[in-house]
Write a sequence for this structure.
């Protein structure tokens, strides 16, 4: 048993060390995998803010993941074809710009979905967010202007000033830096009055209401930040794959983001990071075992839910769950 | 070991002759196959894989390694697998993708990185015209082709106003465009259905009310099963015509008698009478215990195309290898087969009908829809 | 046009009653045990596969339907006693994840057993073909049978819940779990029973819909999500709400897919906008219901 703080640093350093090792050994694919894990981790950290801190079990975060991806895809398409968006806005492939658009779009989507969904709670909230995610999915599939089900290919990955994003090490570094920033942001939120109030709302909404704070507005704020972070992950994912499609909106993506969080440990800062790392590793290792490897993934998930509450982080660290 | 490597073993009996042939066959290759092997669309991927591996096995080559992976029909998984095969396994050739949207995710970046991609099934229009590439070869058809054949057959049957129906997604739009390109009559009505829709009561009611003299539909997989069963039960007797995708061996068993007697168009059929095909159908049945589908024949042809090119040049000499692929110097199960300037097939398209034979439902050729047919996008391709 | 509209109304009704069979189980299980069961769609698939297999072996459609009920109920009892009962006291998050894992196991397990190709299941000859309704509408007999079967099940369920001892216990269990077990009712047997009932209904609807559509792996998930929309609209835990919600969703979906593209063609010259809207319509309906009544049409206020 190790203290969670030490564990957190070990995970962070471990991912970085893995990538540097991959670079040293010339294993480009490991770098790609590390970037994929880092991006999934960002999406998980985003969901964790709503799920762990806010107690909002969203089964529709694929909506924000997809919105982020489509922001990048749409801007890139217009840049590739030199046709301005709405005849006004030039397309672009500059990451700082596309990411900003993704974040804003994700926040807006979360504001609308959140405002409606937060009228309910518990099981309703789960099913409603799931249904909204599907609504985005069907919209994207029928939206033929941007490729419909075929999605959009981004022929050249977006650029970032001072970096060669086509170099796998640079792209991993970028994803890792974003992950680190997002983790710092979440830790800051955690310790801020807002974070404390959010925790209090999760435990006892009535008590918070008596001191004059609206639980719903607090939750909505958390949901919006959560959606924005997940949209940022979607933007990076689009750049990683150089491709976006309605599959980013599918409900299995929502399920997977949720798996990162639970696998790693709900409401723990590094929980989603651990979960994403383990998921990417499993996908890689189990995928080759048999045609029916999903059965084993399912069994493993079941065992974790039944016997390892608190996820991997909970099992390996001795500190009690926050909050 | 994470990858499922299938090293084709050289049978001992071949060893004696193998030594003599070794010089001519000295060009090995590493082939990455990404296909849909789990979930609802798995039947198609399984058939492409089995057909492909059968050809490799028959070649008796031990210097060809095929790495097979399951894309789960998820574009991001397909991209990850392609990254691994290119960056880590260092394959020379990629192949195997079933669905157009996955092909669009993988192919552009793979060919940009200098790999060869041979498509055993998907043929999106985006990759046939302006988006064509010298390292991309389509060994199946351009998506529109099979529908163009259906349009031609509708003319032959004297249809004048067809009710046209396909799911609302790019391959569906390709289908409608393809049909209308060759069809000389007027479409009575065009209906786009929801992708994955399995209840066609509403569309069938519209067909009944449309006054059309024929119905063209493109509904692959479960969508087609559902439509054909419901249409047969509806009592509407406007004749159907469609591409092979709703009548192929992978699903015809599930459609049952509702599939009987409907003309469907394809570039291949199990009863196609040429030496390569007769041998292929027999060998496939022998090895896997089922009738091969169109997808299996495409996988088989793709492998044989690669083998024929390897006999002439190693993959490392990209120019020569590409030229060897372009020659398409292999015995196709479809009979005549050659490549157009955009590396898409020029081939015949047949009209088939499902019949019951020895207790099994199977397709049989009833005629030819189009001869030496090329796709409509080749002119836009600058290679 | 009027005839076409009436036919579409019937289609919507038929979709609605089949959705009800799915939604009834989901909502009962939630109401009584507080469990969100994503694997409900897998039970639907199990029912369809069992029916297709038995029909192929015996040639009897009736036996196939019995098999769908039995197989889905058996699968339900199996997962309830082995896994799900450990989750009743857990939060919804654990339930969602565990039942998500069950979907993976069921889907690929089914494929491992039955192979990768869809199965054959078709309408039995006595029920096939169209009948002529008053007004001259030609309508498939089997769809009328589905409407009838769905409404009969709804009636049966209502009688079971309101008129039998088990039903009263189910109602009591939904209202106050601890009270019921304090009264000496074997609550875990009651839970298994409720779960098996819900599973059997899902299995039956899988077999009936599979007969009309197709029997393949992955058939359960789209229906599951629509069933969620149904019970959110109707009010989670309320069987009457599930019926109202199911018929509302069935009609909205069918009429939307029919009328919106026509309207959009008339207004804009192209059906595209109508199609995009039609594919999102039931979710918009759900959002509207939530704005007016967050607890659903027949749900109890939280």
């Amino acid at each position: 048993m190790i203290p969670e703080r030490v564990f957190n640093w070990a995970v962070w350093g471990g991912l970085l060390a893995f990538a540097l090792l991959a670079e040293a050994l010339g294993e480009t694919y490991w770098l790609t995998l590390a970037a994929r894990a880092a991006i999934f981790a960002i999406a998980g950290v985003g969901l964790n803010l709503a799920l762990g801190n806010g107690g909002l079990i969203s089964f529709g975060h694929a909506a924000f993941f997809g919105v982020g991806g489509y922001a990048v895809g749409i801007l890139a398409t217009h840049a590739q074809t030199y046709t301005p968006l709405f005849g006004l806005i030039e397309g672009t492939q500059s990451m700082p710009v596309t990411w900003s658009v993704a974040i804003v779009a994700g926040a807006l989507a979360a504001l609308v979905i959140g405002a409606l969904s937060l009228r309910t709670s518990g099981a309703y909230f789960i099913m409603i967010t799931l249904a909204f995610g599907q609504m985005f999915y069907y919209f994207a599939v029928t939206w033929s202007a941007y490729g419909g089900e075929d999605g959009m290919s981004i022929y050249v990955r977006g650029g970032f000033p001072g970096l060669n994003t086509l170099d796998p090490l640079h792209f991993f570094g970028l994803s890792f830096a974003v992950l680190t920033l997002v983790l710092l942001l979440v830790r800051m939120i955690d310790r801020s009055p807002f974070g404390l109030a959010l925790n209090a709302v999760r435990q006892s909404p009535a008590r918070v209401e008596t001191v004059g704070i609206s639980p719903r507005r607090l939750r909505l704020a958390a949901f919006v930040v959560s959606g924005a972070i997940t949209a940022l992950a979607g933007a990076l994912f689009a750049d990683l794959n150089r491709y976006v499609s309605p599959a980013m909106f599918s409900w299995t993506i929502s399920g997977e983001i949720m798996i990162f969080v639970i696998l790693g440990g709900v409401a723990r800062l590094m929980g989603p990071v651990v979960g994403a790392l383990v998921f990417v590793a499993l996908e890689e290792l189990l995928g080759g075992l048999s045609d029916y490897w999903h059965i084993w993934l399912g069994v493993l998930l079941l065992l974790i839910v039944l016997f390892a509450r608190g996820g991997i982080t909970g099992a390996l660290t001795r500190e009690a769950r926050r909050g | 070991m994470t990858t499922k490597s299938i090293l084709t073993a050289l049978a001992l009996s071949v060893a004696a002759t193998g030594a003599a042939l070794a010089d001519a066959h000295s060009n090995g290759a590493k082939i990455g196959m990404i296909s849909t092997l789990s979930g609802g669309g798995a039947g198609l991927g399984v058939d492409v894989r089995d057909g492909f591996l059968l050809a490799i096995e028959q070649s008796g080559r031990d210097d060809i390694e095929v790495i097979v992976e399951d894309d789960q029909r998820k574009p991001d998984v397909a991209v990850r697998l392609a990254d691994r095969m290119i960056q880590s396994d260092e394959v020379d050739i990629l192949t195997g993708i079933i669905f157009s949207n996955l092909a669009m995710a993988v192919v552009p970046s793979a060919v940009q990185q200098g790999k060869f991609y041979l498509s055993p099934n998907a043929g999106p229009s985006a990759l046939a015209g302006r988006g064509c590439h010298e390292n991309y070869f389509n060994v199946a058809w351009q998506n529109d082709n099979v529908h163009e054949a259906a349009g031609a057959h509708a003319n032959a049957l004297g249809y004048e106003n067809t009710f046209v129906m396909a799911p609302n997604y790019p391959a569906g739009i390709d289908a409608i465009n393809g049909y209308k390109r060759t069809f000389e009559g007027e479409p009575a009505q065009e209906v786009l259905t929801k992708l994955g829709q399995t209840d066609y009561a509403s569309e069938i009611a519209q067909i009944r009310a449309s006054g059309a003299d024929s119905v063209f539909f493109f509904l692959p997989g479960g969508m087609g099963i559902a439509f054909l069963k419901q249409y047969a039960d509806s009592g509407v007797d406007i004749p159907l015509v469609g591409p092979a995708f709703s009548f192929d061996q992978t699903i015809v068993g599930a459609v049952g008698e509702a599939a009987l007697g409907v003309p469907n168009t394809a570039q291949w059929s199990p009863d196609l009478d040429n030496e390569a095909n007769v041998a292929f159908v027999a060998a496939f049945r022998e090895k896997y215990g089922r009738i091969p589908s169109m997808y299996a024949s495409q996988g088989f042809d793709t492998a044989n195309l690669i083998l024929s090119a390897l006999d002439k040049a190693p993959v490392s000499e990209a120019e020569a290898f590409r030229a060897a692929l372009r020659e398409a110097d292999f015995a196709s199960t479809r009979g005549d087969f050659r490549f157009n300037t955009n590396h898409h097939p020029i081939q015949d398209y047949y009209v088939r009908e499902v019949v019951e034979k020895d207790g099994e439902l199977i397709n049989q050729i009833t005629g030819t829809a189009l001869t030496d047919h090329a796709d409509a996008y080749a002119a836009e391709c600058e290679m | 046009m009027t005839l076409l509209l009436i036919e579409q109304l019937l289609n919507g009704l038929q979709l609605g009653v089949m959705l009800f069979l799915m939604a009834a189980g989901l909502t009962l299980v939630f109401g009584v045990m507080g469990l969100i069961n994503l694997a409900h769609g897998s039970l639907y698939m199990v029912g369809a596969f069992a029916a297709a297999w038995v029909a192929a072996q015996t040639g009897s459609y009736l036996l196939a339907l019995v098999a769908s009920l039995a197989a889905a109920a058996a699968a339900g009892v199996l997962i309830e006693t082995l896994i799900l009962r450990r989750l009743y006291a857990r939060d919804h998050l654990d339930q969602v994840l565990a039942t998500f894992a069950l979907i993976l196991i069921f889907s690929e397990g089914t494929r491992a057993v039955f192979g990768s190709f869809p199965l054959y299941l078709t309408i039995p000859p006595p029920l096939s073909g169209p009948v002529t309704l008053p007004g001259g509408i030609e309508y498939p007999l089997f769809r009328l049978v589905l409407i009838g079967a769905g409404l009969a099940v709804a009636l049966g369920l209502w009688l079971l819940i309101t008129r039998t001892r088990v039903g009263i216990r189910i109602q009591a269990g939904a209202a106050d779990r601890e009270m019921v077990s304090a009264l000496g009712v074997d609550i875990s047997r009651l839970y298994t029973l409720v779960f098996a009932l819900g599973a059997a209904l899902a299995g039956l609807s899988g077999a009936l819909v599979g007969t009309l559509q197709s029997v393949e792996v992955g058939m359960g998930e789209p229906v599951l999500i629509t069933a969620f929309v149904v019970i959110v609209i109707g009010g989670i835990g309320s069987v009457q709400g599930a019926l109202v919600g199911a018929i509302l969703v069935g009609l909205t979906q069918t009429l939307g897919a029919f009328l919106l593209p026509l309207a959009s063609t008339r207004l804009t010259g192209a059906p595209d906008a109508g199609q995009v809207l039609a594919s999102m319509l039931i979710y918009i309906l759900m959002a509207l219901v939530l704005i007016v009544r967050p607890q659903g049409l027949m749900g109890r206020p939280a």
